[in-house]
């Protein structure tokens, strides 16, 4: 293949993640298979090479084929499968003294996952760094153990959500001082079986992804999620035992939905070679973004500080709220705040009053996201010393928008003007909220999600009709989506932390 023919092919090559295949003998003999974040840019590098082995491969090559993938992770896995299937000669030659990477899985009671050069596991993979990053992404979705020996306390990986916790702990019965007990109570045995089942599912999911069966895995998870949702809906709400089972099934369905979203997000957006974050909008938050956002929302000044809010719960249980803060379009995690909802503590009294009127209801039916949001906002504005926002973004629809506006108005009437004047932002043109000393109540918007739990439209304060996010400029849309997804992530992570803590307590 001459430079001229290579240049001709490069001119039509895609600038997207995928694999490329050099072939000889009319495409029947595969010489080399490679992956790239940008196929066109990678092929262009072959025009400048002086490596004698690559030049030899190019001289033998007759044709090039490309296969686009959804992300670099898929490119990495597809490359691995193709190398294993076709065993191209130049993939071996060009590695020279380097070795391929493989993913090993032990056969212990709690299997461990590791990277190795032994060609008896999942692989081969050509890029060790990309493989490590892929496993790091997957471990956040499907936690697994890497501890070499059991220990008495939860490991660091458990506390950061990378380990289930139960897999590397010594059994509490074995630490009782009476020696190792082999007979467990029924409840302990049931929990042990459930833990093993969950861990096995995590390992199997990672195996499926590394084997290129991502689509099959997603289909299985969606089927299981729908099944759990239907079973929960059929439960008898009047039975206390059935109500508990219903909550558990709904919780499992929600966790499956979150896993599906995370897998899709990793494969659609993760840039594993350059390791670029999911939303890299800080570079795009320029004067144009500020101008566009101000024009759309009719802001009178630059939105220096933006606060995003969301709540997370399973029918009122483990209910939490979250506040995230963006300063100059970038997350300021030092300003993040989380709230453990107290609203649910008063539900029994509310339930009694409700039932006294002849309306039979359960505590779960009285769980109210709007009331929880109201509590979060009320508690937030009990801190006039915190810098106040130019824009507030809440998750929800008209009800959440109205609730937020009502809380803000009522709280600012109660604030002392001196407190407001003393509430200083760190920097920039943002000022404290309220109708005192020339300051006005901030603009409030609510982002509404579709059935796939993706924000699709925006309700704006004092406007009846919703604005589709698809009609917004890309940079403004990305900023709002980033705020919304970050609030959801922060709330959900706190909810899961509380749930894990409760689940791991002895019966």
TrEMBL record:
Gene Ontology cellular component annotations, sorted alphabetically: excinuclease repair complex
MF (Gene Ontology): excinuclease ABC activity
Pfam short name (any one): UvrC_RNaseH_dom
Signal sequence residues: none
Record GO biological process: nucleotide-excision repair
Domain UvrC family homology region profile: 258-408
Record domain GIY-YIG: where: 15-92
Protein's name in the database: Excinuclease ABC subunit C
Source organism: Candidatus Yanofskybacteria bacterium RIFCSPLOWO2_01_FULL_43_22
Phylogenetic placement of the source organism: Bacteria, Candidatus Yanofskyibacteriota
């Amino acid at each position: 293949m001459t430079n001229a023919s290579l240049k001709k092919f490069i001119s039509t090559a895609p600038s997207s993640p995928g694999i490329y295949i050099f072939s000889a003998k009319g495409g029947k003999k595969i010489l080399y298979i490679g992956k790239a974040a940008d196929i066109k840019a990678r092929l262009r590098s072959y025009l400048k090479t002086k490596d004698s082995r690559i030049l030899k491969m190019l001289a033998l090559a007759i044709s090039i084929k490309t296969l686009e993938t959804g992300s670099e992770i898929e490119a990495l896995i597809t490359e691995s499968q193709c190398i294993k299937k076709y065993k191209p000669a130049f993939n071996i030659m060009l590695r020279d003294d380097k070795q391929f990477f493989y993913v090993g899985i032990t056969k212990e009671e709690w299997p461990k996952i590791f990277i190795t050069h032994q060609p008896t596991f999942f692989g081969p993979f050509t890029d060790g760094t990309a493989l490590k990053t892929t496993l790091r992404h997957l471990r956040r979705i499907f936690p697994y153990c890497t501890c070499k020996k059991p220990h008495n306390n939860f490991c660091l990986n458990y506390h950061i959500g990378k380990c289930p916790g139960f897999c590397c702990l010594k059994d509490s019965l074995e630490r009782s001082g009476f020696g190792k007990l082999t007979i467990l109570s029924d409840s302990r045995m049931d929990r042990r079986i459930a833990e093993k089942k969950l861990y096995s599912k995590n390992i199997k999911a990672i195996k499926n992804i590394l084997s290129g069966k991502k689509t099959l895995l997603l289909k299985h998870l969606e089927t299981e999620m729908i099944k759990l949702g239907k079973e929960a809906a059929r439960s008898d709400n009047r039975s206390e035992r059935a109500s508990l089972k219903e909550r558990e099934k709904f919780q499992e369905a929600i966790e499956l939905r979150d896993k599906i979203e995370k897998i899709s997000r990793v494969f659609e957006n993760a840039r594993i070679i350059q390791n670029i974050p999911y939303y890299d909008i800080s570079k795009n938050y320029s004067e144009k973004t500020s101008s566009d956002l101000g024009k759309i929302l009719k802001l009178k000044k630059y939105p220096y500080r933006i606060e995003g809010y969301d709540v997370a719960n399973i029918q009122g249980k483990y209910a939490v709220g979250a506040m995230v803060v963006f300063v100059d379009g970038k997350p300021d995690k030092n300003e993040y705040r989380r709230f453990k909802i107290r609203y649910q503590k008063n539900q029994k009294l509310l339930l009694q009053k409700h039932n006294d009127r002849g309306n039979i209801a359960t505590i779960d039916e009285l769980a109210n996201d709007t009331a929880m949001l109201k509590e979060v906002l009320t508690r937030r504005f009990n801190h006039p010393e915190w810098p106040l926002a130019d824009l507030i973004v809440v998750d929800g629809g008209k009800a959440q928008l109205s609730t937020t506006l009502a809380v803000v108005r009522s709280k600012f009437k109660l604030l002392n003007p001196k407190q407001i004047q003393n509430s200083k932002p760190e920097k920039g043109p943002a000022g404290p909220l309220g109708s005192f000393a020339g300051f006005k109540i901030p603009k409030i918007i609510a982002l509404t999600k579709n059935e796939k739990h993706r924000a699709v439209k925006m309700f704006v304060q004092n406007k009846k009709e919703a604005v589709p996010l698809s009609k917004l400029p890309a940079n403004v849309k990305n900023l709002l989506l980033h705020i919304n997804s970050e609030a959801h992530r922060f709330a959900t992570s706190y909810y899961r932390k509380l749930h894990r803590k409760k689940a791991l307590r002895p019966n």
